[in-house]
Amino acid sequence: MVAILTSAGCRKLTVDSYGVKSYFRQRQAIRDNLTEQFMDIAEIYNTMNYGPAPEASDSIQTWLEQHQEGFKLFINGEWHTPDSGKYFDSNNPATGKLLGKVAHASALQVDLAVSAARKAQPAWNELGGKGRAKYLYAIARLLQKRSRQFAVLETMDNGKAIRESRDIDIPLAIRHFYHHAGWAQLMGSEYEKFEPLGVVGQIIPWNFPLLMMAWKIAPAIAAGNCVVIKPAEYTSLTALMFAEVLQEANLPKGVVNIITGDGSVGEKIVEHPDVDKIAFTGSTNVGKLIRRKTAGTGKKLTLELGGKSPFIVFDDADLDSAVEGLVDAIWFNQGQVCCAGSRLLVQESIAESFIEKIKLRMQKLSIGDPLDKCTDIGAIVDHSQRARIDSLVQQSVKEGASLWQPTTNMPAQGCFYPATLLCDVEATNIAASVEIFGPVLSVLTFRHQPEAIQLANNTKYGLAASVWSENINRALDVAPQIKAGVIWINTTNQFDAACGFGGYRESGMGREGGAEGMHEYLKLIVNEKSTKTNTTTKSKKAPSDKIETSNPLAFAGIDQTAKLYINGKQARPDNGNTLQVTSATGTSCGRVADGSRKDIRNAVEAAHKTCSWSKSSGHLRAQILYYLAENLSYRRTEFCNRLISLTSATQTQAELEFDTSIERLFTYAAWADKYDGSVHQPPIQGVTLAMNEPVGVMGICCPDDSPLLAFVSLLAPAIAMGNRVVIIPSQKFPLIATDFYQVLETSDMPAGVVNIVTGTRDTLAKVLAEHDQVESIWYQGSDEGCKMVEFASADNLKRTWVNDGKQTDWIENGEGKQFLRAACQVKNIWIPYGD
Questions:
Q1: Looking at 55, 233, 304, 657, which residue is catalytic?
Q2: What is the pLDDT of residues 162-184, one digit of tens each?
Q3: Which residue out of 226, 233, 267, 338 is catalytically annotated?
Q4: Catalytic residue at 338?
Q5: At what angle do helices 783-792 and 284-294 cross, to 10 degrees?
Q6: Model pTM greater than 0.85?
Q7: 283: burial class by Cβ within 10 Å (0-12, 13-18, 19+)?
Q8: What secondary structure letter does DSSP report for 419?
């Protein structure tokens, strides 16, 4: 017997005197095995393919089995079975297998949840910010301790790759609770003049279920509100696991209520009379429906809707980095992202080479099991969504686009769609205008920077954009010109709780995250009075100087017909009609133009063309506001007499209203170059610039009370922030405003910045609300008028700010940062730095 040790892993071979041939056969087999192993290694190096790396799901399977009889509703801190006994299936889109049955809430259970929130809210508010901060911190810590469970469940329920759930969604959700624990702690010092809204109804989408829940719940409860939230029908499971976290944190009963169901449950929340605010993330069409349903109800509204975000690549960009950015922009979460960079705008000179780089990178994208850590593209959430994606792609091809998809081995089962490239896309192609909400990239080219900006803004949306250029001057020149709420420079899809997120135009209204997001869940503490109450403004103190006039009604009998003021000129009404103006005693004071739809159109056109005002410096705007104050002050006697003759104000009241109007002009002249944005420092190597930008063209409808002061108080902050205005003065006392345009003419105000149209307030307000080039409307008037304005503005989702039928005390409450916030949109520009 001979023992031989080989070099191959010291394997021991046994050879007897008659087994020499057997020994050499074994040795040859070892050599062949080693050769095969080395060939495998060489192939791996050549192909760079990853082996499977599945994430364990055992604990989630156990959790699901514990709820195999059906998940319940979380109301008032307790679990409730559905009254109707109705459940719906929640399936894994990657496998089609049933995960669990989810309860469908009844109308009575929606009422029960809202009642629980209403009952809990006073005590939750009285707990104070510091008390609430401890609960938010506890929630953040418990989420951390169960983060892997949440990541796996999110992937199984939604279909997104585990790397995204694990590394993006769950950490960001935790970050929001930590961040807003801080805001709760600072409520007493930073928001001492504000109070919570009350009960907040929240409806979240299926693409980021847990993250959207954190975005909504954290600021709401930090501010002292209580919540009724409905997760998406497709993806309710992480919300229900989150309810267990709330129980473990001992959150007081009723502060957060989680009810599941289809769209009808969300509709009941929206329509519930005891809900004070609706926060919705979802499609633009549903957002418009919610705007109409909440019109005139006094509910505050935040809408985060669709997008068709441009991804702009200039010829001086780092193309390899831009390709990687593009992967994150459009194939992240299978393109099921509202701010996905779905429109690639690439400069013509580099288009061909850049597209080749994209195709090469697309070939390397791994599509398959979302629980595999090597997967890049997971499953589409539902077969109906996949069918919609494919239908839009085929329609785009019919309209002239060329389709390219990588040679990818698609999974045999489940709901998957390959990464898709559409080239030769014209601006009129459906793929350039409609939100596909899938892993589909549309390519358009541009020749120079102005064309890139024009193409970027050629959309009804305005949520986000990415700008790629190694020239920082170019990037920072382009970013402010793009009409979107978030701009990423040489990066994409960056989010943080400290930085506001939200869009312009049909991408919604309001912001989520940061200080801007906190304001969405608070209201200013004011003493409100009903418009039905006949009140007069009372003087706090009489001014020292008196007006000397022999006849307070000296203006009452003058025969005059005041014209409209459009584009810096007095203009006759298009219809030729006029309206009589009478004094408080019924004496005729003259006539004013009866403005019509055509006059509003002319005024809006003039305002739209005066875009240079929005680009002008705050210093210039401040100077002109100071000039307005100076020139108005010269006419003190005239305006006070006009107030006395028209409104029956006493001399003291008229003097106070006039002097306060001068102060208002000075205040907003002071703010014009001081209401700056801020610099956020999110946890990345870079900064985020939160820039206050003018809304654009605004419509303003003034009340009848305090006709001069209300007019100035609404006009001044709007133009101080760089907006151009079409303003409808007091319907009852319009001569105050027509006297004012003489002040405008002598104060260097550029033509078209301020346009004054007199007439019937609600008739003209409806025209403004329906006009697509008016981007915001402020309305002070009746309950019916408020409802009409909010309803009519839903078609293009313009921002509205109405008085909900309440009268404003213009002396006490007619000034403040709330006017400046309403006159601005916050654009967050992300700027990374370093290597």
A1: 304
A2: 999 999 999 999 999 999 999 99
A3: 338
A4: yes
A5: 170
A6: yes
A7: middle
A8: -
